[in-house]
Amino acid sequence: MGTVADILDGDFYRFGELLSDEERQLILRVREFLRTKVVPVANENWARAEFPTHLVQGYADLGIAGLAYPESPGPRPSSLLSGFLALEMAHADPSMATFFGVHTGLAMGSIVACGSDEQRERWLPAMSRMEKIGAFALTEPHGGSDVAGGLRTTARRDGDTWVLNGEKRWIGNATFADLVVVWARDEEDNHVKGFVVEKGTPGFSATKIENKIALRAVQNADIVLRDCRVPEANRLHNANSFRDTAVILRRTRSGVAWQATGVMLAAYEIALDYAKNREQFGRPIGKFQLVQDLLVRMVGNTTASLAMVVRLAQLQEAGTYRDEHSALAKAYCTTRMREVVGWARELLAGNGIVLDYNIGRFVADAEALYSYEGTREINTLVVGRAITGLSAFV
């Protein structure tokens, strides 16, 4: 059993105790790195919209990139451990949690799920060591939720190469990534296929998106592909339709639910500490009934969300989870997260809108988590189709 120090304050039902002793030790090692290296610079990176390149080696040294994949050395971790790792990262800094999730979940996940044995051997070891950083290019300027049927980026076979043309938007890590997984529609058979575009490929350009109000340290980019030639050897050989893409999104959506829960934990803990120490009318504001009401609502949302993602991890481990399970968790947890960060901001009053008190960054970053990996509306329709047997998609 873990000690009190092992469990985050917001883990009211102590779900962290479900981890094994070995898993808990890894979590504590990751938490120490995040606490001492990531958190102290998070607000500054956010304010400047700069990515802390100097931290990448620290993440690499933790040895957790690609940990969940069969190709990684050592024993495969549980889905519960993978979830708690995502929670811990978002609890410290949602921007860096997103960077890591894009690299390991979306980019590496695409190669694991859709690449050939040779492709996995070629790219995954360096990505696991974070010597090569990945990105994932699916969303387009004119299409997000309808990308399954409305993908405009095209791929045309020309001998031993493929010629890619189109545009992508909101692509995290793309300004500095070594490998970008680009999804394009084959002009010949109209099916979606995946291609690994390596840094320096002619016809590929990535321009940083400016003026964001959320996840500002994440280097999101607009990508332009103009007669970008990719060798057949870089086409993901097991990506032959959008259904293959959906397999990756199923798992990463569950990761976003874990991230949202980490944001809730952070917001609750910031608010709890503030309530204990901020004095008004001659007493700590935590002694007022309305303040305690806000705190209880926060811990209730957080506990319910944590229970959901823990159960989701169990379904993943059993191999019985489906798209609708991830969709419900993503929709529910990010909605509850929005409420929690709002209540925390309310509790801090004016101090909640400046970076000095930390909660302002989480309030803003929550908006991005709420939208990416499928909006609440789209994930709702995925669940609705599953429970009724009737599709409401148009």
From TrEMBL:
Superkingdom per UniProt: Bacteria
Family to which this protein belongs: Belongs to the acyl-CoA dehydrogenase family.
SUPFAM superfamilies, A to Z: Acyl-CoA dehydrogenase C-terminal domain-like, Acyl-CoA dehydrogenase NM domain-like
Record domain Acyl-CoA dehydrogenase/oxidase C-terminal: where: 249-387
GO MF: acyl-CoA dehydrogenase activity; flavin adenine dinucleotide binding
PANTHER family according to UniProt: ACYL-COA DEHYDROGENASE (PTHR43188:SF1), ACYL-COENZYME A OXIDASE (PTHR43188)
Ranges in coiled-coil conformation: none
Annotated protein name in UniProt: Glutaryl-CoA dehydrogenase
GO BP annotations listed: fatty acid beta-oxidation
Cofactor(s), names only, from the UniProt record: FAD
InterPro entries: ACX4-like, Acyl-CoA_DH_CS, Acyl-CoA_Oxase/DH_mid-dom, Acyl-CoA_Oxase/DH_mid-dom_sf, AcylCo_DH-like_C, AcylCo_DH/oxidase_C, AcylCoA_DH/ox_N, AcylCoA_DH/ox_N_sf
Keywords, ordered alphabetically: FAD, Flavoprotein, Oxidoreductase
Acyl-CoA oxidase/dehydrogenase middle domain span: 135-228
Acyl-CoA dehydrogenase/oxidase N-terminal domain residues: 20-131
Pfam families: Acyl-CoA_dh_1, Acyl-CoA_dh_M, Acyl-CoA_dh_N
